Amino acid sequence: MLIEIGDIAATSLITLYCHALESLSDKPILFDPKSVEITTELDKTLSLSDHALARILVSGTLDKRLVVHIALRAKKYDDYARDFLQRFPDGVIVNIGCGFDPRFLRIDNGRMVFYDLDLLEIIAIKTVFFKETERYHLIASSVLDFDWMAPVLEHKGPFLFMAEGVFMYLEGKDVQSLVLKIQEKFHGSELVCEVVNSIWLRPPLKKILDYKLQRQTHMGKDAMFRSGIRDSREMEQWHIGIQFLDEWSYFDSDEEKLGSLKLLKHIKLIRKTQWTVHYLLN
Ligand SMILES: C[S@@+](CC[C@H](N)C(=O)[O-])C[C@H]1O[C@@H](n2cnc3c(N)ncnc32)[C@H](O)[C@@H]1O
């Protein structure tokens, strides 16, 4: 479809354009000039497409609430990464399902090692905009093909794994095997990942969620959410040593741009539709 990538990979175009739009807005939540540079270049190809999403991206008419949410999320994940680097300045960060996000440029402390991992179709485009160095690496692989772990294991760590807007597109059993494999191979690492409330993945709420996603993103069926957890502590049951540290929801932010949406934080089912969880994998 769009620039020859599948529905799930194309979700990274949405987050990229959200970062760029927010960067160009008044009092940006996220300042990300590299995303603006990439979208300016991609516009040339996307403007030739008659796909509904391509038209929305190029015309800068993405849903404003989505832009705010995605920018808040990226900023929060930057904060998680910076906090990790404060504690471990020579640490190693793996950005699972990185999409086009230039997080490395936003948070680089001059010492850490950073891996961007995504499907081949994304990394093939990303290499046009990013050059690998001794401290910045691109891995073209499904996160479910565990061979990607080999080069990362050559470092002594400590390790932080981030999965921003990724796990919900995978099957639940695959997310579980991945987390357990990371725990086994990278003992003592940290994981920050976004999860969806599994209550929203069953009828009748699933229909509402699918409709909302479809309306906001105009994506195909493949880009629908497949897995989630019921609460932040659920992953602790997967294996001894998985320890829940903290959680974050968009609605916890006091960002002005959230407007009246902030009121929804008092409704637990809404505050915990899609949120972020931080674990220690001991
Ligand atoms: C919604 S985008 C999020 C991109 C980025 N994390 C961000 O927040 O801007 C989801 C990303 O997950 C990637 N993804 C989905 N399944 C994957 C898999 N099995 N292995 C690696 N990446 C995957 C997609 O290609 C896409 O880039």
Which labels suit this protein?
single chain, 282 residues, alpha/beta, Rossmann fold, seven-stranded mixed β-sheet, 7 strands, 40% helix, globular, binds S-adenosylmethionine
Describe this structure in words.
The chain is of the alpha/beta class and 282 residues long. The protein folds into two domains: 2-65; 77-281, Vaccinia Virus protein VP39 (Rossmann fold, 3-Layer(aba) Sandwich), CATH 3.40.50. The chain is built from ten helices and seven strands. It has helices spanning 7-23, 33-46, 52-59, 64-87, 103-107, 120-129, 149-153, 172-185, 205-217, 268-271; strands at 92-96, 113-118, 136-140, 159-163, 189-196, 242-248, 274-281. A seven-stranded mixed beta sheet has the order 3-2-1-4-5-7-6, covered by helices on one side. 40% of the residues are buried. Bound molecules: S-adenosylmethionine (SAM). S-adenosylmethionine (SAM) is lined by residues 8-9, 11-12, 15, 97-99, 101, 118-119, 122, 142-144, 164-166, 169-170.
The CATH superfamily of the largest domain is known as Vaccinia Virus protein VP39
Strand order of the largest sheet: 3-2-1-4-5-7-6
Poorly predicted sequence stretches spanning 5 or more consecutive residues? none
Q: What would the average pLDDT be, to the nearest integer?
A: 93
Distance between the termini: 41 Å
Map the helices and strands.
Layout: H1 7-23, H2 33-46, H3 52-59, H4 64-87, E1 92-96, H5 103-107, E2 113-118, H6 120-129, E3 136-140, H7 149-153, E4 159-163, H8 172-185, E5 189-196, H9 205-217, E6 242-248, H10 268-271, E7 274-281
Parallel strand pairs: 1-2, 1-4, 2-3, 4-5
Antiparallel strand pairs: 5-7, 6-7
This protein binds S-adenosylmethionine (SAM).
